[in-house]
Amino acid sequence: MAKPKKRYICQACGSVSHRWQGQCPDCAEWNTLREDVPATVFSQKHDLSSGGRAVEFVQLDAPGEKLERRKTGLAEFDRALGGGLVPGSAILMGGDPGIGKSTLLLQAAARIAKDNCSTVYVSGEEAAGQVRMRASRLGLADAPIKLAAATSVRDILTTLNSMEPPTLLVIDSIQTMHSDTIEGAPGTVSQVRGCAFELIRYAKENGVALVLVGHVTKDGTIAGPRVLEHMVDVVMSFEGERSHQYRILRALKNRFGAVDEIGVFAMEGKGLQEVSNPSMLFLSGRETPLAGSAVFPALEGTRPVLIEVQALIVRLQSGATPRRAVVGWDNGRLAMLLAVLESRCGLNFSSAEVYLNVAGGYRLSDPAADLAVAAALVSALADKPLPTHSIWFGEVSLAGEIRPVAHAGLRLKEAAKLGFTSGCGPQDVANSSQLKYRGIRQLANLVDQVMASA
Ligand code: TYD
Ligand code: MG
């Protein structure tokens, strides 16, 4: 018999290679390839066109049962889920270790349990006592959650099958689970996939909302949640800087709702607090205007969030290569913007170090932030503060033109609501707010405006 060919599976993305490589050719992660035993062909019957059972068809337009959503009661969690938990659905909750996934799920589970719905929380990482300690710290010690510390999927499913199915089942985390029918240590791709498959099947058959926690690790020592993305209905990502208080819950995939909604939380001494009005979150709240600071009205799904962009320019005396450092924005985009400011507006950044920071640990990806970044840079270069209570938005083209952006009206309205009095952005914006709006055509107009200001 021919020797079975070796194959290697990337623990981060699940792609298969036939030789070992240091870097995965698909997802470009390093040191993530592990040897895998290929599945043996159990059946000699290769012809699949007969011998099976008949599949039952139903009409698409047949009256079906309506999708009932269960609100968890944590409004920000429900919002990110698109309205609440769907029975029989599987949710993958990804995020860096220590970001607050267990805390969030314990809080959500407690809300549901207190609502007279049975909730099972299986922890593969912490002993039941540790989870109980966390619960009492969160003030949830009296929540009737069924708690278990277990890692064997066989034990878990045997137990669950002998009782009434719960409304919510949390598995924390899928990377600690292990199935005795599959070879390999917990956390390998085949274990993670196999365990998730069995748990998801249980959830679908019993109408249980299942949440699988999945850690994201950079070094690939455990299989990343990406190998599960196609198996689950909803992929959520819990993000934030560990050194900052704020956490954003985002849906990356949702079979039952939109993916552009976010939930915002603040990690405090007594767990995660909901932040229902995040628009002011990323402003520094300073009263005196400072050169190099501009406010950008960002949009998170349908929610406007005002964000402060800060720039610092340091003139170099010597001929050393000047540094450009960016936190919370794209490096390449800063280089582009500096090039446009130099070539189209006649400014000179060549002998200056440029630092750019987005306040509050927020990450900007909206191209509409270009104009706010440009305003911060010009203000820092000229050492002139921008007018207080003003906002800036618009995409900057390589020709130095200000291009229109989505939802300009919504951005202006939210800023006006929060006490901002003036705005600057692309031309031809329908402004129905109280704000004094100035549409500009060229980036050079912005430079003139900043230089002219007192
Ligand atoms: P945790 O939920 O254990 O993270 P994960 O499950 O994603 O690994 O959260 C861990 C961090 O949260 C921990 O470093 C301490 C912090 N924390 C608080 O600041 N306040 C709290 O009330 C709790 C429970 C945790
Ligand atoms: Mg945890």
TrEMBL record:
<dbReference type="InterPro" id="IPR020588">
    <property type="entry name" value="RecA_ATP-bd"/>
</dbReference>
<dbReference type="GO" id="GO:0005524">
    <property type="term" value="F:ATP binding"/>
</dbReference>
<keyword id="KW-0378">Hydrolase</keyword>
<keyword id="KW-0547">Nucleotide-binding</keyword>
<dbReference type="InterPro" id="IPR003593">
    <property type="entry name" value="AAA+_ATPase"/>
</dbReference>
<keyword id="KW-0238">DNA-binding</keyword>
<dbReference type="InterPro" id="IPR004504">
    <property type="entry name" value="DNA_repair_RadA"/>
</dbReference>
<dbReference type="GO" id="GO:0016787">
    <property type="term" value="F:hydrolase activity"/>
</dbReference>
<dbReference type="InterPro" id="IPR014721">
    <property type="entry name" value="Ribsml_uS5_D2-typ_fold_subgr"/>
</dbReference>
<dbReference type="Pfam" id="PF13481">
    <property type="entry name" value="AAA_25"/>
</dbReference>
<dbReference type="GO" id="GO:0140664">
    <property type="term" value="F:ATP-dependent DNA damage sensor activity"/>
</dbReference>
<keyword id="KW-0067">ATP-binding</keyword>
<comment type="function">
    <text>Plays a role in repairing double-strand DNA breaks, probably involving stabilizing or processing branched DNA or blocked replication forks.</text>
</comment>
<feature type="binding site">
    <location>
        <begin position="95"/>
        <end position="102"/>
    </location>
    <ligand>
        <name>ATP</name>
    </ligand>
</feature>
<feature type="domain" description="RecA family profile 1">
    <location>
        <begin position="66"/>
        <end position="216"/>
    </location>
</feature>
<keyword id="KW-0862">Zinc</keyword>
<dbReference type="InterPro" id="IPR041166">
    <property type="entry name" value="Rubredoxin_2"/>
</dbReference>
<protein>
    <recommendedName>
        <fullName>DNA repair protein RadA</fullName>
    </recommendedName>
</protein>
<feature type="region of interest" description="Lon-protease-like">
    <location>
        <begin position="353"/>
        <end position="454"/>
    </location>
</feature>
<dbReference type="InterPro" id="IPR027417">
    <property type="entry name" value="P-loop_NTPase"/>
</dbReference>
<dbReference type="GO" id="GO:0005829">
    <property type="term" value="C:cytosol"/>
</dbReference>
<keyword id="KW-0227">DNA damage</keyword>
<comment type="function">
    <text>DNA-dependent ATPase involved in processing of recombination intermediates, plays a role in repairing DNA breaks. Stimulates the branch migration of RecA-mediated strand transfer reactions, allowing the 3' invading strand to extend heteroduplex DNA faster. Binds ssDNA in the presence of ADP but not other nucleotides, has ATPase activity that is stimulated by ssDNA and various branched DNA structures, but inhibited by SSB. Does not have RecA's homology-searching function.</text>
</comment>
<dbReference type="Pfam" id="PF18073">
    <property type="entry name" value="Zn_ribbon_LapB"/>
</dbReference>
<keyword id="KW-0479">Metal-binding</keyword>
<keyword id="KW-0234">DNA repair</keyword>
<dbReference type="GO" id="GO:0000725">
    <property type="term" value="P:recombinational repair"/>
</dbReference>
<dbReference type="GO" id="GO:0003684">
    <property type="term" value="F:damaged DNA binding"/>
</dbReference>
<feature type="short sequence motif" description="RadA KNRFG motif">
    <location>
        <begin position="253"/>
        <end position="257"/>
    </location>
</feature>
<dbReference type="GO" id="GO:0008270">
    <property type="term" value="F:zinc ion binding"/>
</dbReference>
<keyword id="KW-0346">Stress response</keyword>
<comment type="similarity">
    <text>Belongs to the RecA family. RadA subfamily.</text>
</comment>
<keyword id="KW-0863">Zinc-finger</keyword>
<dbReference type="InterPro" id="IPR020568">
    <property type="entry name" value="Ribosomal_Su5_D2-typ_SF"/>
</dbReference>
